[in-house]
Amino acid sequence: MPAYICRTCGVQYAPTPVPPEHCPICEDERQYVGWNGQQWTTLEELRAEGRRNTLTELEPGLLQLATQPSVAIGQRALIAQTAGGNVMWDCVSLVDDGSVHALRERGGLSAIAISHPHFYAAMVSWSAAFDDCPIYVHADDAEWVRYRSPGLQLWVGDTREILPGVTLINTGGHFRGSTALHWAEGADSRGLLLVGDSLTVVMDRRYLGFMYSYPNLIPLPADSVRRIAASVRPFAFERIYGAWDGRTVSSAGKDAVERSAERYIRFLHQLP
Ligand SMILES: [Zn+2]
Ligand SMILES: [Zn+2]
């Protein structure tokens, strides 16, 4: 039975003989159902369409995995090559032999960690390709997991160190279980923060945005933005990598979070 993949959000569902009727992730007000109605695909179909993954080095110890032509939301995955093993941050919907082989040559995957449901993608197939490596999803988002696999690890609490120096931070905001990843040894030990949609690196790449829904343009309340900023404040980081190709705050990342939260809340309150 195929594990169907939603064409609009790119999330893979547990195998069924026929495609599911609904995608609750797309029907939620943070996403949307495709304008031509709910459509599904499969890994085999995505490969047959000629899509391929490329693996590129962004800086020493940090790889980007991206699909061309892009699928659904079109996010990238990032791979932190840490002393304790490689961690895939967020995920893509296409799994192909070329990129699995390329990752194996770089030590495989020890863990997958996901920021929030929009980026679950084919996390189960990626885990299966690497000996059912753990997939860390915050327990507050458990209701959104559509395909439970042997690797699924629902974690609870504010932070969780999954490998030495690799810490998941529950930021809340976009989803209750929304998570960011802090890698202390990244950027020559100045620290890297990898983010999903609760903090997003915006187009000027000096600021971050904080939205409940991006496609439907629903802002987050001030309290949520304060909580997001407070959740990452204890951690040192120089750079911030977002979910999209090129979306990087390349220096003084901590200052960028603080000034972005301040600006966002100022505009929410219509202050000058
Ligand atoms: Zn969907
Ligand atoms: Zn999202």
Task: Describe the structure in brief.
The protein is α+β, with helices and mostly antiparallel strands and 272 residues long.
Written overview of the protein:
It is a single chain. With 272 residues, the chain is an alpha+beta fold. It has a single domain, classed as Metallo-beta-lactamase, Chain A, CATH 3.60.15.10. The protein has seven helices and 19 strands. The strands form five sheets. The chain has a seven-stranded mixed β-sheet, with helices on one face. β4 and β5 form a beta hairpin. α6 packs antiparallel against α7. The mean pLDDT is 97. It binds zinc ion (2 copies). One zinc ion binds next to loops.
Tags for this entry?
272 residues, alpha+beta, Metallo-beta-lactamase, Chain A, seven-stranded mixed sheet, six-stranded mixed sheet, 21% helix, globular, binds zinc ion
User: What name does the CATH topology carry?
Assistant: Metallo-beta-lactamase, Chain A
Strand content: 25-35%
The coarse silhouette is globular
The overall number of domains is 1
What share of the residues lie within helices?
10-25%
Bound molecules: zinc ion
Helix-strand blueprint:
Blueprint: E1 5-6, H1 24-27, E2 40-41, H2 43-48, E3 52-59, E4 62-68, E5 77-82, E6 85-89, H3 97-105, E7 111-113, H4 123-129, E8 135-138, E9 152-155, E10 159-163, E11 166-170, E12 179-183, H5 186-189, E13 192-194, E14 200-201, E15 208-209, E16 211-213, E17 218-219, H6 222-232, E18 239-241, E19 248-249, H7 253-268
Parallel strand pairs: 6-7, 7-8, 8-9, 13-18
Antiparallel strand pairs: 1-2, 3-4, 4-5, 5-6, 10-11, 11-12, 12-13, 14-15, 16-17, 18-19
The structure holds zinc ion (ZN) (2 copies).
